[in-house]
């Protein structure tokens, strides 16, 4: 089965990104044909520094390699290196109703967040995401909970194109993690973990053990001392329990038993150590890759070449069906 997913080149990824998406990539690449994309065209829909973009792209590639994406098993490339992404996005925009885009939750949220940077690209972002997926005729898309609505739109667009012009695109399914599809902020457990917030609110995949300990020990918890999972009444400790569960493979019930009568302090110390130990190989691999820019660039170039072969075949059929060739 062919699978597509992409992440924006916006600096270090945090454990929410990793547990919600990248961890799935690592597992899926073992038995599927995976296409993974650094979506730089999406990155320019919100404020960014043009001088930093190329560095961020290389950093993103290094991050995914360090996290376990294998270029011998998966295609990894930069979105803008395959021009067909932009071409297909434009063609799909001609059949996408404005009403569908107006109801997209992320557009509403980002319009409020970047009031001076609301642009047509931000509005049409979900169509470009649909083009990313459909260009490779992917049958499944591993995403975090916040992107589920966009994959649903991709399904709608695929169905509409097939009905109007003839069958080309499969309707892609969403692959969500069973738990941890949405990891919450350490400082505000009612809000999704985000790199754009205070660094204290998230754990980077490459944080030092000291930083991890500080952030976990100061993470917001709830009244009482009992380590129990109750997302409504105890969102803070429940969020930390989910992280502990996903990192160790233990159920939340098993962790509750482990810390019965021990309180938040002991639980947090254990979580900090578990996280630091789990992330140590990522830190080592990233340091190594930071000295190997030539290798990373070559890997991306080879990935783009493989992606273009698929993209060009799809676009030849799309142009023919739409009467453009």
For the structure shown, list the relevant keywords.
about 325 residues; mainly alpha; Rossmann fold; Tyrosyl-Transfer RNA Synthetase; 2 domains; three-stranded parallel beta sheet; two-stranded parallel sheet; 13 helices
Structure, explained:
With 325 residues, the chain is mostly helical. The chain has two domains: 2-180 and 293-321, Rossmann fold (3-Layer(aba) Sandwich); 206-287, Tyrosyl-Transfer RNA Synthetase (Orthogonal Bundle). The protein is 55% helix and 7% strand. The chain contains 13 helices and five strands. It has helices at 15-28, 40-43, 50-67, 84-93, 98-102, 105-113, 120-135, 148-165, 209-217, 235-248, 252-258, 263-289, 293-321; strands spanning 2-7, 33-38, 74-78, 140-142, 173-175. Strands 1-2-3 form a three-stranded parallel beta sheet. Strands 4-5 form a two-stranded parallel ribbon. Strand 1, helix 1 (15-28) and strand 2 (33-38) form a beta-alpha-beta unit. Helix 7 (120-135) packs across helix 8. The longest helix has 29 residues, at 293-321. 39% of the residues are buried. The model has no long low-confidence stretch (mean pLDDT 92).
Q: Mind sketching the topology for me?
A:
Elements: E1 2-7, H1 15-28, E2 33-38, H2 40-43, H3 50-67, E3 74-78, H4 84-93, H5 98-102, H6 105-113, H7 120-135, E4 140-142, H8 148-165, E5 173-175, H9 209-217, H10 235-248, H11 252-258, H12 263-289, H13 293-321
Parallel strand pairs: 1-2, 2-3, 4-5
């Amino acid at each position: 089965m062919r699978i597509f997913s992409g992440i924006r080149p916006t600096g270090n990824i945090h454990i929410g990104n990793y547990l919600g998406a990248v961890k799935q990539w690592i597992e899926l690449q073992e038995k599927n044909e995976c296409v993974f994309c650094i979506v730089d065209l999406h990155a320019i829909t919100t404020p960014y520094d043009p001088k930093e973009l190329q560095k961020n792209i290389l950093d993103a590639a290094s991050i995914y390699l360090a996290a376990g994406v294998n270029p011998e098993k998966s295609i990894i490339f930069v979105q803008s290196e395959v021009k067909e992404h932009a071409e297909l996005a434009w063609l799909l925009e001609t059949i996408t109703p404005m009403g569908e885009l107006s109801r997209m939750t992320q557009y509403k949220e980002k319009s409020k967040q970047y009031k001076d940077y609301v642009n047509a690209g931000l509005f049409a972002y979900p169509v470009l995401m649909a083009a990313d997926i459909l260009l490779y005729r992917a049958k499944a898309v591993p995403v975090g909970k916040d992107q589920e609505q966009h994959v649903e739109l991709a399904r709608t667009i695929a169905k509409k194109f097939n009905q109007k012009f003839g069958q080309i695109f499969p309707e892609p399914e969403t692959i969500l993690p069973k738990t941890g599809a949405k990891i919450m902020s350490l400082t505000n457990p009612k809000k999704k973990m985000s790199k754009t917030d205070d660094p204290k609110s998230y754990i980077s995949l490459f944080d030092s053990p000291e930083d991890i300990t500080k952030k976990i020990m100061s993470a917001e918890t709830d009244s009482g001392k009992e380590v129990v999972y109750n997302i409504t009444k105890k969102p803070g400790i429940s969020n930390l329990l989910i992280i502990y569960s996903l990192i160790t493979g233990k159920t939340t019930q098993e962790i509750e038993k482990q810390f019965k009568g021990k309180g938040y302090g002991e639980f947090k110390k254990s979580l900090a150590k578990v996280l630091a130990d789990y992330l140590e190989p990522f830190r080592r691999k990233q340091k190594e890759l930071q000295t190997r820019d030539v290798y990373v660039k070559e890997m991306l170039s080879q990935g783009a070449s493989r992606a273009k072969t698929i993209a060009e075949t799809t676009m030849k059929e799309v142009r023919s069906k739409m009467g453009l060739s």
